[in-house]
Amino acid sequence: MNRAFNRKKDKSWMHTPEALVKHYIAYNAKFLGSTEVDQPKGTEVVKDAVRKLKFQRHIKKSEGQKIPKIELQISIYGVKILDLKTKDVQYNCQLHRMSFCADDKTDKRIFTFICKDSESNKHLCYVFDSEKCAEEITLTIGQAFDLAYKKFLESGGKDVETRKQIGSLQKRIQELETENSELKKQLQGLKEQLRVAHETPAGSISMKAPCTDMFDMVPFSPVSPMVLSPARNSQSPTSSFLRPAETRRDLFGAEPFDPFMCGAAEFSPDIQSKLDEMQEGFKMGLTLEGTVFSFDPLDSCC
């Protein structure tokens, strides 16, 4: 899907972008409940869910139970479902996890959306009675999704795949650097053996050659190599430890490229995983649809 969302062509957004970016739009509604569905999209999918939850509602009503009243807070950060009195957050549905949102064309009060649960990864269908504001709420969610998707792209989300590829290349370069460093140390050991062999005077007792491994290589020693300082005022050369270079460079002589410095900040693995998830969610898109859920609209007394 090339577009981030599908919406009814004869409708336009109802709110200013600032209202959804810096604040939120609130609606009061009654929460019929949520139920698991087997598909992320589809009119028939939500029809079955609405029918199931409406049936459960009638049973609860016959038992004297009231339908809970809630407040919906819609912004680019998601759709929060709060208890109307206590303002406790019951659910927080992130927009990139939403895939389908629809309102009933015959019963102007009923609307629903499908959202993927963050813990179980199951698709849940949420159903609400919104006092004849179903279409407006659906469009508000669609507008919030549109703005959130654009915000995600502006913040560097479109570079997620590129960053992953660059990160893989950087890892390979680091592996080659390590391998190159080990080979240099082995080569330095061989040169040292040759130098000692050529400098030993004839007839003198030669120093004990360093132990070698099964490949006739000098074992790697973690001690830093020694370098000789130039003699000053006829004094003997003094030795000192080799200081590491201030700027680390790769085997090509260039400074290693940090793929995550091209964005606003450096991302840790868990944040990168979150970006990948958001990219996949927004790529799926949110489908808005006006449909007929059933031929038996809820009674006016709730």
UniProtKB/TrEMBL annotation:
It comes from the Eukaryota. GO terms for biological process: phagocytosis. InterPro entries: Adapter_Engulfment-Domain (IPR051133), PH-like_dom_sf (IPR011993), PTB/PI_dom (IPR006020). It is found in: Cytoplasm. Keywords: Coiled coil, Cytoplasm, Phagocytosis. GO terms for cellular component: cytoplasm. Residues 25-155 form the PID domain. Residues 159-200 form a coiled coil. Belongs to the ced-6 family. PANTHER family: GULP PTB DOMAIN CONTAINING ENGULFMENT ADAPTOR 1, PHOSPHOTYROSINE INTERACTION DOMAIN-CONTAINING FAMILY MEMBER. This is PTB domain-containing engulfment adapter protein 1.
